[in-house]
Amino acid sequence: MVALGASAGGLNAxxxxxxxxxxxxxxxxxxxxxxxxxxxxxxxxxLAKRTPLAVVQASEGDELRAxxxxxxxxxxxxxxxxxxxxxxxxxxxxxxxxxxxDLLFESTAAAYRERxxxxxxxxxxxxxxxxVRAIKKMGGTVIVQDTKNAEFAGMPEAALATGAADFVLAVxxxxxxxxxxxTPHD
Length: 186
Prior knowledge:
Layout: E1 2-6, H1 10-19, E2 29-33, H2 43-48, E3 54-57, E4 68-71, E5 77-81, E6 85-89, H3 101-112, E7 117-120, H4 129-137, E8 141-145, H5 154-161, E9 167-169, H6 171-182
Parallel strand pairs: 1-2, 1-7, 2-4, 3-4, 7-8, 8-9
Antiparallel strand pairs: 5-6
Helix pairs in contact: 1-6, 3-4, 4-5
């Protein structure tokens, strides 16, 4: 299970990561991208044209499937539940945002423990920092986009400040790192 969080500059980073993954990627991917809640999002359509993976806007009760990318709908927190199902929430804003990477990462850590991977991409603010601590505490893996090539370094810097990052990678190295992490080793 791979959870990705992004904000400002995140669409470009997400496009670069997802376009590097094969259609038979062996895990589900769940994405929180901070969006203006007053406008309809075209993220699903944009990403679907740039990756061989199936890209869908997440709905309440969706079942996670390998090779599928679930995008949080605007103005909804996206949570991963034990048993591999998604839920949506409109509870209060976290760090002034909804959806929140922190809530996604925390729910992913609780549901998938050591099988959880969190990826923090370009973005302003601190969203995701609390969540990467939860991923790490449960034995999961944390990947943070290198601040040198993030359009906005706030989210990656906040994640790095936690000391929870296992890998700090240029955005174009993240897809191959995910594939290596999810390939069974003999």
